[in-house]
Amino acid sequence: MFEDSTERFTPQETALLAPFVTNTDRPIFCLRNLPEVVKGALFSRYSRSTRSLRRLLLDEFISAPESGFNALVGRAGADPAAQLVAAREAEAFYDRVLIGYGDDSVAELGGAHIACEGVSNIAAKLLEDSRLGLSPLEKSTRYVRFDLPGPDGYAYLREPALMASPYAARFTTAMDNLFSTYGALLAPVQTWLQAQFPRDPETSQRAHASAIRAKSFDLLRGLLPMATRTNVGLFGNGRAFEYLLIKLAAAPFAEARQLGQAMQAELDQVIPAFVKRARSERGREYATYLATTRERVAARAARLDLPRSSQDDVAVRLVDYDPRAEIKAVAAMLYPHLDAPLTTVQEAVAAMPEAERMAIIEAAMSERKTRFHRPGRAFEEPYYTFDILADIGAYRDLQRHRVLTQERQSFTTEHGFVVPPELEAIGVARTYSAALEQAAEVFAAMRAEFPHEAQYAVPFAFRVRWRVKLNLREAYHLIELRSARQGHPAYRKIARAMFHEISAVHPALARGMRFVDQHDYGLERLAAEQRLDQKRQRGDQTA
Ligand SMILES: Cc1cc2nc3c(=O)[nH]c(=O)nc-3n(C[C@H](O)[C@H](O)[C@H](O)COP(=O)(O)OP(=O)(O)OC[C@H]3O[C@@H](n4cnc5c(N)ncnc54)[C@H](O)[C@@H]3O)c2cc1C
Question: What 3-state DSSP class applies to 450?
């Protein structure tokens, strides 16, 4: 279909191009084996030229000595140190090309994978506050045991300011106790789970053991404090990294500021052209703006004397929604199929009989067969604002949704903690609670002097309050994904509560959310592990 318009290359040109493109004779192709800066600069030129991408690559990069192409990509390119030198030498060339493009989105044209190891959960949450443009993956509290000590003891951050304070000994004693309690409770919890959920003959030993292990880690994760060290990998584009680096520079945590500097040094080695603004005067000013604004608003907030917690605190409260959501959503469904202004369509929908509106919603939803079938963009019209008070463990999971608006309050022990009912049944709830209470005492002692750093002492079992504003389309995604059987019971409960709240105000719009799992399961991971076994038996490579 497209081939006729494809540019032809001589055999010599083809040989030069071949290592860097997935084909030289078809119009659809990928770039490969090229440094990020070359790909970014090449794409920037693309938007300002009549020439094809491969022609640009040949003429303006491969054959242009000032691009440093051979040093960057050729034999020297195999040596990272030589590549870095080459990138610096050709910096003026790339700056010219990239600046010539003149738009912020040029920084989205280069990407990097970066690993942040041994960071605390406070820092991990700051990294994961990022939205589109960054894709994080974090070591799981469900699949990985967290009490294995390293050379310095249990793996948690000993924040230098706290360690230099009179609270150091109390802090480390409480943190050590959390980790040792986690370790000590694993065996009784797993023994109880095995007795409670014996393996049936159809289930493999592997699947059953994995499900028990995951459940035991899920049950005990509440003991892990925010100081717990974890690993976070991020893949993202330069622009998103630039903003993240600026936010880290503005963060009230010394760990986060140091992390930002360390990340900058590493990103400078792979995508320097795309993240350099973070360390420029402009970047510093931006960070100052963020930090100063936060402090000024915080000072204003401190003047308000509000009760921190109230009796009627509920886990999931729908605070706000659009009463005209149904009319707006139905109008948006019809809009692409009409030739009339949006207000006219909305007026027509408002005047429609109820049954006709329902029929349109039905037409938009009835073909939906799995949760992967996304509802259309019309479902982005209705917005919902929730105020959630739930354990930090659940917050950590739900925070990962990047399309919605989320903001949390500080981590505190003020709102109490949650004890999984299984721990009561096993008879270890007192030991579990005692470790949490000890951490709460240390937090309370440190809080006035170290309002930020004290948060490292707060274990995941304590409740945190956060607000979530999301549209209905994202609500479909979040609620159906997070109510799925294999999810953690803490966030499954929240997802189901959100579903009930939305259904109560917009029943017709919520009716299409057909894949909300309302059941409770003992061993949430078991069915997923059984499916994994079946895939392995079939030799499915994706298993
Ligand atoms: C059972 C379970 C186990 C999990 N285990 C782990 C784990 O071990 N480690 C871990 O780090 N995380 C884990 N997660 C979290 C998971 O990796 C996601 O970060 C989280 O579910 C958010 O989902 P999302 O990206 O689909 O949602 P959102 O961020 O809300 O995005 C909604 C949708 O928008 C689209 N979208 C969003 N961002 C992008 C983008 N940058 N590019 C393209 N499309 C985008 C996608 O279609 C996405 O599904 C787990 C989640 C579940 C449900």
Answer: coil
Model confidence over 380-415: pLDDT tens digits?
999 999 999 999 999 999 999 999 999 999 999 999
- CA–centroid distance, residue 400 to ligand 1 (Å): 7
The string of DSSP codes covering 27-44 is S---B-S--HHHHHHHHH
Which residues sit with their C-beta closer than 6 Å to ligand 1?
132, 135-138, 140, 400-403, 477, 481, 486-487
Is the residue at 155 inside a domain? no
Of the candidates 419, 463, 458, the residue with the CA atom closest to the CA atom of residue 442: 458
pLDDT digits (tens, 9 = 90+) for 373-388: 999 999 999 999 999 9
**Ligand 1 pocket test target in 230, 402, 498, 531 with most atoms within 8 Å of CB:** 402
Does 95 share its domain with 244? Answer: no
Whether 152 maps to a domain, the answer reads no
Per DSSP, the three-state class of 353 is coil
> What is the average per-residue pLDDT within 227-250?
97
Mean pLDDT of 223-229: 98
Domain that holds residue 200: 161-217+419-460
Q: Please report the atom of ligand 1 found closest to the CA of residue 143.
A: 8
The secondary structure of residue 117, as a DSSP letter, is: E
485 and 388 share one domain: yes
CA of 356 to the centre of ligand 1 (A): 36
